Structures are given as C-alpha cells and as structure tokens.
Amino acid sequence: MQSFDLVVIGSGPAGRRAAIQAAKLEKKVLVVEKGSRVGGVSVHTGTIPSKTLRETALNLTGWRERGFYGRAYRVKQEISADDLRRRLLITLDHEVDVLEHQFARNRVQQMRGTATFVDANTIDVTKDDGEVLRIQSRSTLLAVGTKPYRPSHIPFDNSSIIDSDEILEIKELPRSMIVIGAGVIGIEYATIFSALDTQVTVVEPRDSMLDFIDKEIVEDFTYQLRDRNMKLIFGQTVESVEKLDGKARVILKNGRCLTAEMVLFAAGRVGATDKLNLAACGLEADNRGRLKVNPETFQTAVPSIYAAGDVVGFPSLASTSMEQGRIAARHAVGAPAQDPPQFFPYGIYAVPEISTCGLTEEEVIQRGIPYECGIAHFRETSRGHIMGLDTGMLKMIFSLKTRRLLGVHIVGEGATELVHIGQAVLNLKGTLEYFVENTFNYPTLAEAYKIAGLDAWNRMGELKVEKVEPRAAE
Ligand SMILES: Cc1cc2nc3c(=O)[nH]c(=O)nc-3n(C[C@H](O)[C@H](O)[C@H](O)COP(=O)(O)OP(=O)(O)OC[C@H]3O[C@@H](n4cnc5c(N)ncnc54)[C@H](O)[C@@H]3O)c2cc1C
Ligand SMILES: NC(=O)c1ccc[n+]([C@@H]2O[C@H](COP(=O)([O-])OP(=O)(O)OC[C@H]3O[C@@H](n4cnc5c(N)ncnc54)[C@H](O)[C@@H]3O)[C@@H](O)[C@H]2O)c1
C-alpha cells in the first residue's frame, strides 16, 4: 500500500494550491480526482467557463461599443451556442495543461478515481473500471467542492430545465429564460444571457439580491438591469416548475405563471461530501453537505483531516479557496502559515461587473463608526468618455476619526480589476490622503479613485497636521 505525507482529495483551486505548497516543502503528495481532467469545478463548470462565456458574449455582441453605436449594434449578427463553446474549449485545454505541468514540475502525484474513507488515515480510490486502490495518508485535505443543488421536485431535463453545469452544454441560445435564484451564479448567467438579447426573468424568494454587497451599489446595479428590460421578481417563491411543449412553465406561490424556452435553476450548491463515507473517519457534514473547520488552520474535528474551499462554505470563491488550501497544507505538514491580510476582494462577473473589498456602508453603520463616503461616476473620467461609458460608479467609505479607508465598492466596466487598488490601501491601512495626494495615470478608469477621494475630502475637509518643529541637524 502506498503511503503519502498529504493526500488531497479534489483538484480544484483549494486542492491544487495545497498540493503544490506541500510539494514545495518536499512532502510526498498525492491528488485524487474523480473527474476526467484535473481543475475542479473552477476550471470545468464554474469560474473559468462562466467568465469565458461572458467574455465571448461581450465580444460577439459588441456590448462594450453599444454606448457609442446604440443598443442594436452587434459584431456578429447570429450568435450560436457553438460560437460560445468554441472559445471555452480552447481556454479549458490551456488551463488543464498549465495545471498538469505544475503538478509534474513539483512532483505531485495524481490518481484518477473517487476517494472514500476506510478510516481516518486510510483511503480507497475507486477507478472508473471498478478497480480499488488503497492508500495511506499521514494527513488528508478534503477539497471536494460543491455541486448544484437539485431538489427532487424540479423536473430537470438537461434541455429546457437545467442547472448551472448543464448551461455550458446547451444546443441553442434560448430566446427567453427564467432564472430561479438571484445569487451570484444566477445573476451572472442572467445578465450574460440578457447581453445576448435573451429575454430574462429572475425569480428570488428574498426581497433583494446580493445582500453582502453595499446596498447603494446593488441599487445602481438593479436599476441598470431593469433599464435594459430584465424582469426581476423579488419576494416570490416558486410553487412548481413544469415542462410544456419544449418550453418550461414556472408557477409562483402568488399564482403568477411565467413561461420561457429555458429555466436555469440556480438556488445554491451543496458540498460534494456524499461519496466520502465520512462516518468511517468520524466526521459529519451539515444538511448542505458542508464541513466545519477551525477557520485559522482549516483542521476538522479529526486532527489529521483538513477541509478547504467551497466544502467549508462562505465565501466559496476560487481565490479564497486557493489561499485556504495553502494555509491548510502548511499546517498539515507542520509549517504553519502567517495570518492572511484582513480584507479580500469579491468579484461578481455579471454584466456589469461588481467588485467590493472591506466594509459596506451598512456594516459601518452597524459598528457605529463615524464615516463619510466619496463617490465617482465613470462618466466623470476621460477614459469613461473615450470608452463611451454612461454607467459605472466607485464608492469609498472613510473613517471620520482616522481618515482610513474602510471599504471600496464598484459597479461597472473593469470593477474586478480596479478593486485591487482599494484592497491594497485597505490592507496597508491607508487613508483618504493616499487618493488625494497621489497621481494616477491619465486617462484611466482608476482616476475614479482620485475623483471619489476628492469627493470625500470636500465633505471631510483638510487633514489637521500639527506643526512639527524642524529637528536640529544631527
Ligand atoms: C458557475 C460558477 C461560477 C463561479 N465563478 C467564480 C468566479 O468568478 N470567481 C471565483 O473566485 N469563484 C467563482 N466560483 C466559485 C469557484 O468555482 C469555487 O470557489 C472553486 O471552484 C472552489 O474550489 P474547491 O477547490 O473548493 O473545489 P472545486 O473546484 O469544486 O473542485 C472539487 C473537485 O473535487 C473532486 N471530487 C469531489 N469529490 C471527490 C471524491 N470523493 N474523490 C475524488 N475527487 C473528488 C471534484 O471532481 C472536483 O474536481 C464560481 C462557481 C460556479 C459554480
Ligand atoms: N464571481 C464569483 O466570485 C462567483 C460566481 C459564481 C459563484 N460563486 C460562488 O458560488 C457559490 C454558490 O453560488 P449560488 O449563486 O449557487 O448560491 P447562493 O447561495 O449565492 O445563491 C442562491 C440564491 O438562490 C436563492 N434561493 C435559495 N433557495 C431557493 C429556492 N428554493 N427557490 C428560489 N431561489 C432560492 C437564495 O435566496 C439565493 O439568492 C456562492 O457562494 C458564490 O460565492 C462565486
């Protein structure tokens, strides 16, 4: 029986980063992956495919040029599902190739099959042909991720009623679509298909969407979606979903009946822990298949077993999963990592993008911190004029007492890139003066930071600097 210092189950962002980190520390590492290719949800059905689809949709529709040439402008008149898929396959091949090369360079061993616990340090790997290999692990990292939540009362048919994995396989672009669930996945796909001129309706049981985002940003975003004729139905629960002559019908609890060519059910995800036989190692998942860990070490209740990535719940991002995997691996092999910086960014690749880092205005109020905001609209920047942008805004929140940046919130073109300037200032504990006193490239959208900084400065006034007596020459 082969034995390893660290066995990583799952090759998504958490597993991949963990395996390479442990290998760099000269440990014997094995990655077990049940999928046909390494990369996890992130590469095959999640982050990379959805972002590639978004980029293709924006390029082929000419979306970014519509500010100049009008809403009817298109780069390609008839866009097919194959047009969208073509770029996807090239991107995915490249991602897998890079990852396999990383594993090979770092001598991370790989095994294809489904991992199941025999006991806390023994794992069976069942291959596709039924062969079972037994391995021994000093430590194990569960980086098994999640899969779409598919309740039994929804008649999924992989054609007109689908989940977010199946959307990548559609044969034709639907003319109309109902998206159930206004979470990040639902909203990203809803806005991408709306950009492709699909008539989109979103149904969400809560009274609003994206509750963890600053309310003012969500309001601006919501206005933009409604302005382009997307239907957003909040506070309504779905009673039933039915197939209907090649279409689908969604009946809401209030009696409203919606019909569309396609329904995307995007009401959350569940941890992929069902195949692990957790009972054999003394662990138990919650009712959504998720595992509890120590948030500093990612150790589960069983000391030699760690869990990281989506299987441990919020924030469920590829970016944070990688970092969690790295921290877990270091702890598992006895080389603990330093605490990560306090603030990480969150990027929602909807059309338009949203990105945020630090506290929202609602959180600042809740904590009783005296504050002031500065806002810039992209149309106030010269780069915005050049790009034909009439939407997009950047908001910063500052402490009145310390003048430190507390949060940065952006909606609009380039938001997910722009946010990193604010993130750096936040984590380096910078103040309003950084934005007011620094020179930014011109013309850029980053100039919005300067404009928002000046907007806050106009309300907060000058920094009161006590006069310092010049020191005598030493
Ligand atoms: C549609 C969509 C869009 C997203 N967009 C973004 C985005 O823009 N930015 C972002 O940061 N995040 C995004 N995410 C989230 C991101 O994909 C996840 O946070 C990330 O993939 C989680 O990584 P992970 O390592 O936890 O596991 P995953 O990527 O979920 O990978 C888990 C792997 O474990 C394998 N596995 C499971 N069980 C077993 C077993 N028993 N034996 C062997 N192998 C097993 C699976 O086959 C899978 O390959 C998106 C997710 C989705 C679904
Ligand atoms: N850009 C990104 O970073 C990105 C993109 C996509 C996904 N993700 C991650 O993937 C995770 C999963 O995303 P998600 O959108 O599937 O889940 P989610 O939990 O974010 O959203 C699910 C939504 O569905 C609604 N809902 C729940 N039950 C419902 C029901 N029965 N009927 C109708 N609506 C219902 C919820 O109120 C919620 O708004 C997220 O945590 C997110 O962080 C990240």
UniProtKB/TrEMBL annotation:
Pfam families: Pyr_redox_2, Pyr_redox_dim. Residues 345-450 form the Pyridine nucleotide-disulphide oxidoreductase dimerisation domain. InterPro entries: Class-I_Pyr_Nuc-Dis_Oxidored, FAD/NAD-bd_sf, FAD/NAD-binding_dom, FAD/NAD-linked_Rdtase_dimer_sf, Pyr_nuc-diS_OxRdtase, Pyr_nucl-diS_OxRdtase_dimer. One of its GO terms (molecular function) is NAD(P)+ transhydrogenase (Si-specific) activity. Its EC number is 1.6.1.1. Signal peptide: none annotated. SUPFAM superfamilies: FAD/NAD(P)-binding domain, FAD/NAD-linked reductases, dimerisation (C-terminal) domain. Residues 4-325 form the FAD/NAD(P)-binding domain. It is found in: Cytoplasm. Its cofactor is FAD. Keywords: Cytoplasm, FAD, Flavoprotein, NAD, NADP, Oxidoreductase. NCBIfam families: PRK05249.1. Belongs to the class-I pyridine nucleotide-disulfide oxidoreductase family. Conversion of NADPH, generated by peripheral catabolic pathways, to NADH, which can enter the respiratory chain for energy generation. This is Soluble pyridine nucleotide transhydrogenase. It comes from Peteryoungia desertarenae. The gene is sthA.
